[in-house]
């Protein structure tokens, strides 16, 4: 077979099934954005300078765990809905002579493309919304002092790893 054959088929499938894949992509982006924001807020160093900041950090860390569990359950459910919608397409591929291992390669590239788009979009939107929510948090706590925005590598790493595992499990399922 030609090089990148399965990758091209996967890209074509995503374009043709955009009515079902686009809502799934938006769901993934929104879930990733929420997890990134919670993770960034819980690991922010400014919380240590606030009165009650340690308690707020623990509560936000608990919120991060809850959002992570919600993300796992929600993305498993939405992926199963997407797969049910596309069972006829998978059957057609098999009738036309595509073996299960070839179909698995196509689905791998589809999952990879969706993961890249959703993690990239979710983290970018998370960074933008994080700034706004962090300022709201500071306003609510009436924190007086200098603040600076720093990109949170730990939250980004946690987000990328968690959603890579979720997408891998969805692919294997």
What does this entry look like structurally?
By secondary structure, the protein is an all-alpha fold. 82% of the residues lie in helices and 0% in strands. It is built from six helices and no strands. It has helices spanning 5-16, 18-42, 53-85, 87-95, 100-141, 153-172. Helix 2 (18-42) runs antiparallel to helix 3 and helix 2 (18-42) packs across helix 5. The longest helix is centred in the last third of the chain and has 42 residues, at 100-141.
Q: Topology of this protein?
A:
Elements: H1 5-16, H2 18-42, H3 53-85, H4 87-95, H5 100-141, H6 153-172
Helix pairs in contact: 1-5, 2-3, 2-5, 2-6, 3-6, 5-6
Short description, anyone?
With 173 residues, this protein is mostly helical.
Give the number of DSSP strands: 0
**How many distinct helices?**
6
Q: What is the radius of gyration computed over CA atoms, rounded to a whole number of angstroms?
A: 20 Å
Largest sheet: none
**What is the mean predicted local confidence, pLDDT?**
84
Q: What proportion of the residues form beta strands (DSSP E)?
A: under 5%
> Level of helix content?
over 70%
Order of helices and strands: HHHHHH
